[in-house]
């Protein structure tokens, strides 16, 4: 669907508090549009938008869309939403979030869309920070908050637009990338996709959106990604560690916190040594992808090692929340078996006595379809706590629950316990954790609240 955003003075967002929706709202406010919106509950994101001039109502009500020229909704909003129904009654044009993002992206000469089953937020952040520091003045939309960028969105004044490209519901097929990055391709979102072959087909379509003079930057170590590349006829730049690629990382080492260093080679030429301030081998791939993009955009690569080290990570990606009584609390957004394995592998290099993992599964469909994979993903944890599934956009089908996962993990000989309430989890942690332990909260829902509760209660007890 092609639209001209300038034709719509007042744009209304249903679900404006979402990380991407709020970023799009911010971009439109800066472009001079009147922005209104609604959501189910208030948040710091909504408060920030209000200070910028957005009028936002809690909760969703039909009257909220009255007077709007365009209504934007997220994939989580159903067609029986009162505001959707009202917009249809008033014949107000309705578009989804991805369509709006694509139409904004279309206006930029150099759009960079970062796709992949895992790592999108970090890789997009790295590209954005490097280009910002080198005065490319990009407009940026990220699925996480980055301190160095001041949030998840940045409005620039140039031809460069950097965004995450999510495959769920084929959203990324509505984008207009000059450079398409494919970090990896894995089984996920199986409530939408039929199987891995279906997912690879979508990534193939995404890569083919690149114009003839554009580029596809892809991981040469990922089997599914390499399958995708066989079906596209575009300029391809590969990156990797294990296999021979255009960009390779060699001579890898890790510091005492698990942050890697490596020499980057481009077509056999040593481009210098890079030190990351984020942990894990998987982030070497994200760094290589960002270097490849910057090089294609003719950046001064001699400066990239200095700027890449500045990046301390996005919120909820191996984020150190605090330390008390010798116990460190870390939070991570991992919600897929591959991500959990990578996160816990990274944690092995982080100084600790025991690793206590608190996991909240995200969506019933993902938990059910990947149940065995989840059970196998916690082998590097010493103590595992499983809490109830975060429903997100779904309803409980009764076909799977967290006790099923807990039982499968126990069969692997792991020390695992199911605890329903966050308060009970915090009490268990206070009675179990000892100095030197790392408590890691993992999941895409609200499990981070457990870490906050633990730290706040422990501080209160210490200060009593």
TrEMBL record:
Residues 114-294 form the Mur ligase central domain. It is found in: Cytoplasm. Residues 11-108 form the Mur ligase N-terminal catalytic domain. ATP binds at residues 116-122. One of its GO terms (cellular component) is cytoplasm. Residues 316-445 form the Mur ligase C-terminal domain. One of its GO terms (biological process) is cell wall organization. Keywords: ATP-binding, Cell cycle, Cell division, Cell shape, Cell wall biogenesis/degradation, Cytoplasm, Ligase, Nucleotide-binding, Peptidoglycan synthesis. Pathway: Cell wall biogenesis; peptidoglycan biosynthesis. Its main location: cytoplasm. Its EC number is 6.3.2.8. It comes from the Bacteria. It is an enzyme of class 6 (ligase). It catalyses: UDP-N-acetyl-alpha-D-muramate + L-alanine + ATP = UDP-N-acetyl-alpha-D-muramoyl-L-alanine + ADP + phosphate + H(+). GO terms for molecular function: ATP binding; UDP-N-acetylmuramate-L-alanine ligase activity. Belongs to the MurCDEF family. Cell wall formation. HAMAP family: MurC. This is UDP-N-acetylmuramate--L-alanine ligase. It comes from Aceticella autotrophica.
